[in-house]
Amino acid sequence: MIGVDTNVLVRIYLEDDKDQVKNAQEFLLEATKKGGLFISSYALLELAWVLKGKGYNREQIYDAIITIIDSFGVTVGQKSVVLTALEKYIKGKADFGDYMILAEGEENSCYNLKTFDKKFQKELS
């Protein structure tokens, strides 16, 4: 199994640098042939952050991450946390990172989250 960082995911998704896109596509093809691709939950969190910064909406970010998770030969770190966070993200108003924090807490039996983000705190109440 071979790991991939956020930069590779961003290049493939945005297709904004032809040389890097080609290299990334070749890398992904080779990785799936050699036993699979590992993507850290943190790389997906960073991908969501980059896509938001590029103007992608909540649904587009959700679709991008779900597509990656559902791809053949891909193993995602903390997959259950990522999936829980995605389900909260698509229904809520906070950032994906906020829902990752919430979902990881819930995964570890922590069901109360304190935040100074007033909108998010209201959603949690």
The residue-averaged pLDDT reads 92
- Specify the CATH class: Alpha Beta
Work out the helix count: 7
Strand line-up in the sheet with most strands: 1-2-3
Alpha carbon gap, first and last residue: 41 Å
Q: Structural class from helices and strands?
A: mainly alpha
Per the principal axes of the C-alpha atoms, what is the gross shape? globular
Helix-residue proportion: 55-70%
| CATH structural architecture | 3-Layer(aba) Sandwich
Number of domains: 1
Give the biggest beta sheet.
Answer: 3 strands, parallel
Structure characterization notes:
This protein is mostly helical and 125 residues long. It has one domain: Rossmann fold, CATH 3.40.50. Helix content is 66%, strand content 7%. The chain has seven helices and three strands. The protein has helices spanning 6-14, 18-33, 41-53, 58-69, 79-91, 96-107, 118-124, and strands spanning 2-4, 37-39, 74-76. It has a three-stranded parallel sheet with strand order 1-2-3. α3 (41-53) runs antiparallel to α4 (58-69). The protein is globular, with a radius of gyration of 15 Å. The model has no long low-confidence stretch (mean pLDDT 92).
